[in-house]
Amino acid sequence: MGAEWELEAEAGGSLLLCAALLAAGCALGLRLGRGRGAADRGALIWLCYDALVHFALERVGKTTNQEGAGVLGSTEWNFKNTDKLL
């Protein structure tokens, strides 16, 4: 039962981070898109969210262990530990 709760806590933290990044991306995109059309604002929101997600993943990759992390260890794909992802 303990392992189940740990997995749920990790998933909850991941969802919370995703929601925070989405809110920040929307706020930033709407601010940058003032005075523009709806399609332009939507594109700016998506681009801001995408940039924030890439930045967050890059930060996670730099702070994780190279041997245990697998693919998030650097900007290049590391196929050495891909079996740990399955």
TrEMBL record:
Name listed for the protein in its UniProt record: EBP like
Membrane-spanning parts: 12-32
Organism: Macaca nemestrina (Pig-tailed macaque)
Keywords, comma-separated and alphabetical: Membrane, Transmembrane, Transmembrane helix
